[in-house]
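Raw record, unedited: Universal stress protein
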Amino acid sequence: MITIDAMMVCLDLSDIDEKLVTFARSMCERLPVKKVYFVHNIKTSELSEDFRETFGDVDLSQEVEANIADIVAECFAGGCDHEILVSEEPNTEVMMADLVKRFNIKLTVLGKRMSNKSTGALGTKLLRILPCSVLVFPETANLHIESILAAIDFSDASVHGLRLSKSLSDQLGLKLEIMHVYKLPTQYFPLISEEKAIKKAVEVVSGKFKDLQKRHNEIADVPYVLVRAAGKSTAERICLQLRKKKYDLLVLGLKGNNPIPSLSLGSVPTNLYNMDIDIPLWLVYSEKVIK
């Protein structure tokens, strides 16, 4: 059973904040979430001289907190216990990583605007530095979740993400499908037949799925789809699958071979984050990796 003792929601005072707060409330309604921290950092070093001259010694933190409190009062009514944290630190990602450690945050909810509106640089930094799982919520995402796609590569991290997806599916009555993208050693064509190579690759991957199902009986009946990369990256194939079928949530297990999470994000999560997908992306670290 999935329980979240503490969840952090990162706000940036943009029009996506209301949607993030509403999404946080829906999570509290459907999952056991004990406490939510709504967080914003004011980078005072970026305030222009014009601002300082116009507003002088205004207590900006108090004004920002009041603004967030209004949004929370309107969009989080009926949610769980919560707290608003506004800070003034030069480095936002380090400040948020400290909060994760201080309050034992299990999940961070991070908003994402489309690429034509934002570079996503801060989000990428947060993905690399936050010592917890991250749920990326695009501005175009739907609040209602009915189906999950769990993309796996058979690593321990991806199996952890898959097991979380299954628990989430069972708790909330969601549809779940597993996806694996396989690649062929094209450097050996035409020495070997492409048709035979595809057949052999499918046979090997299907064997891996059978072994996985034996080790984790709870996923034995979950349908899975095998997709050949065929000249595209794994992230591109996952993105195409999302467009092909109707899913409401994508779950990926973050790499865990390196003991420092910030050095083990992996190219697939990074590439998917930088793509304009319109469903939430849950990037999962296991507790073992975090520790």
